[in-house]
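S., here's the first fold you wanted:
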Amino acid sequence: MDNKTVYLNGQYLPLTEAKVSVLDRGFLFGDGIYEVIPAYSGKLFHFEDHMERLENSLSSIRLVNPHERAQWLEILTPLLDAGRDQSVYLQITRGVSDKRDHAFPEKVTPTVFAMCSDIVPLANLESGVKAISIDDSRWELCNVKATTLLANILLRQQAVEKGCAEAVLVKDGYVTEGAASNIFAVIDGILITPPQGTEILPGITRNVILDIARQNSIPYSEEIISLDALQTASEIWLTSSTREIVPVVQLDNEPIANGKPGPIWEAMNQLFQAYKRSQ
């Protein structure tokens, strides 16, 4: 195990020495939230947007934010390496109580954990990936970046076991997102992604792509996408903070268009790479 330095409750220490109580509510109930922030060459990417999402997630589970934004920046910066592209994983749980009880405990201190990992580019990015569509069995607060990810894990595992990179989730005949990603589709020349709401995570990369599309006159729309419409798309992308923009070339064993990443993805990926280096 890489014995890198991590942050835990006010201390920087080796990963192997970072311990939490078995009575921590994150361990017992998944009672917490998390955030993943890319950092390119030691600089956090869209830090303010990630903090806004963190604050919204904390508010949704009625957990007081233990730090101001400036304090978060001060905490996370020592974990970064200016010579590497990394992602910061930040987790906040409700803390440790003296007994296991579903009700919120009183007067507990949140547990705060943060670590950095290298961003490893997807090996087959230029050739695209495969995906399958699966019924969305998750809870109704998918906009909250909660640590309770068992449903997402089970859905992603179904995809992996079928040789696919991701599960495209479908609710009542309409696409919501991937098990660990947002989704875009190019349909009739328009770049489309489902609108924000409780059924999808408000992805930071998703929003950056929409901004880039707007700035570069790429036609786009935020609207619902039926599975039937998705199956007619000329391009499908999956987006996330660590994988960035991944083209899907096969869905449910059927090729997307010619089975290769499309021209709009190629243009957007180049624009995104330039954009992230300019921040």
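And the second, which I think is the more interesting of the pair:
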Amino acid sequence: MDQTDGVDSFRSMRSTPFALVGVVLLMSLFAMSAAAEDWQADLRHSLQSIDDEYPGELGVFVHDLESNRTVSLRADESWYLASTIKVPVAMAVMEAVDRKELTLDTEVELESTDFVDGAGETNWKSPGDKVTVRYLFEQMLIHSDNTATDVLIRVVGKDAVNDLIAAITEGGIGEITSLADVRRYAYSRFHERAMDLSSDDMFTIKKAGAGSNRVQALAKVLDVEPGDFQVPDLDAAFDRYYDSGLNSGRLDDFSRVFEALATNQVLSETSHRHILSLLEKIETGDNRIQAGLPEHVSFAHKTGTQHRRACNIGLAMAGDHPGVIIAACGRNTADLGASEKAFRQVGEAVTDTGVFGDD
């Protein structure tokens, strides 16, 4: 293009009415807004289809931190959070590390009251054994170890965990208890004396199996007749426990915990990166949301499973994108496979929006 052509082009641009330029800009903004609304509408439709096929009830909250757009399915209702509460426990521990009240190498002596049934290696140890905070921390997050969690709650204090939750959320989260107390509160729906169950008692009850066998074992441990129980079975006992609101919360509110991790609102840079790195290594969620995400997307998340309840909540990250929080919980079904399938489909539905771009 010679100099004359350049001048003519410049004169042409100058002669373009400002009103036309404004119209073009507005049309572009409207197009971007419409595309975003289509993204949200399409995802809502997909989530509803997943929920229609699910044998129980599904709750989902998706928050794109880049656009600040959200999509919700029953996210404003209270959901039992199960082991996903181990994330705020981890944050409370790292707050104490940041304050130099302890270090990851601090040794903790295990007590007989610390032991809780569940996954992880801490139950292979004995009262009096010493382990580091680092060991407990990794067992809690990577392997969802209940005993490690309760030891850490003892170390930092239950109030520290609940104060952290209160500071991050807007009050939509019920009280966080120890994992041993989850069992005590649930079994106390049968009989109030269950609040005094020891660690050994709870292991005995767990070993009896599920259903009526566990109820019979509870009666034997409490030295009462099953006819004295206030509820007929585990379903009724746990339903009453879930109604208490303990360890429960709105998904849109609890997701703020992961937003605080993503934006580093609470912890030092080293501490928040340490938590996210461990949440990317968890070994309990391969068949849940992560299974529906592209390979180039990392997922820092936590799973939770309890009687007729399941959850998976995390932060999906790709490239320079600040992240997408994906929270999914299911209730009122004993079919864990159905819950895992639904969670995987949620991951696929979020992926289909194109929010993660290309690998």
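Why I say that: Residues 6-16, 18-35 have pLDDT under 50 and may be disordered. The longest strand covers residues 298-306.

Talk tomorrow,
H.
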